[in-house]
Write a structure and sequence with these properties.
By secondary structure, the chain is α/β, with parallel strands linked by helices. It is 45% helix and 13% strand. Helix 12 (300-307) links the parallel strand 10 and strand 11. The longest helix is centred in the middle third of the chain and has 21 residues, at 105-125.
Amino acid sequence: MLWSPMQRSWRLDQVARRHIFFFAPVVHKPLLSSTATSTHRAWFTKSAHHDPRLGMTIHPSHRRRGPRRLRAISMDVTGTIVAFNGRLEEHYANAARFCHVPLTHDEIQAIGSAFGRAYKETSRQHPCFGNDKMSAKDWWRICVLRSFQLAGIAMPSRACMERVFQRVYSTFGSPQTYRAFEDAIPFLKWAWRKRLVCGVISNADERYGDSILPMLGLTDHLQFLVFSKEVGFPKPHARIYQEAMLAAEPWLGKGRKWGRDAAPLVPSEVLHIGNDYEKDYVGATKAGFHAVLLARFDNAEAQEWREKGAPVFTDLMDVIEALARDGYVFGPKL
């Protein structure tokens, strides 16, 4: 379904109002966990806000009355369903060598940290990959060439710089740099069987949807794709989660799979899965979604997330088991 700007503004307002009106004030319990830590409870109390239109306090933890039903799942991309192959500095160095740019060992090692600085710098100057003000490719050209500059790598000409950039840009749209996690497609097939609408919410540009996800065979199992470049707001902003609900909702009425007379989707019927505490857990729960985090390598950071009250799992199969154990109901209301 294509929305006009006026329709989209009206629908976003309706989605926001659903988060306020369709929930009953009950005690929050972390998704997929039988106990809540004091830290978790304190965070939700602190994040409650007063809505002057209603003259009342709204809690992100408010849930709709009745059984816990999931009708949609949103997921982050890299680190959640897609893995990164190799090391960034090696990919950049290989591109430079291919274009006959000599590099020292120290220069190669400096690329990783230089990229981190360049990415933050470019994001400040041109938020959300330039949104509608520049193409994603132009955004990445600035970021990539700035990375080489910050690493102290000089190139002999602008033509050489462009060749190196084109090589980097092509590499990062190929199987050389990305692969789907082994549990990604089985999880999405399980969701399809349960009549759950699935999609992605990513702080990325549209190339994920145009080439990377199709290349990995994932778009055959995804119903909606929401990227920060197109929305103009990154996670953890509530707007990108609201846009995901708008993208998911048309699928709820597509034939018998999800029910022709499907009721409007509400935030408490959506589960978000990601791998960043602030962007994926805090952002999603503030928007009224259920949320869990994946820590594929179960490191010290994952333990910190658990101590803050977030449900943390090492793979998507564990999420399926936990959902079944906690008695969630899936799919459309009959």
